[in-house]
Design a protein that fits this description.
This protein is of the alpha+beta class. The protein is built from two helices and four strands. Helix 1 links the parallel strand 1 and strand 2. The longest helix is centred in the middle third of the chain and has 12 residues.
Amino acid sequence: MNHDKELDARGLNCPLPILRTKKMLNELTSGQVLKVNATDPGSVKDMQAFANQTGNKLISTEMSAGEFVFLLRKH
């Protein structure tokens, strides 16, 4: 899927991937998609909770080569 911006959160531990995701989403307009690459296993649960709490849509969560790839659509 195409995305408008990409965030490299690899090597960062909780809560930094979520904090940086929130900051980057604030720079997007409604409907734009953010791709987040992370290595913290806790980010899977955190990203789901973040999307539920903020109203942003978690489009997908994938694991590839030991990394987690998230796509979020800004509400």
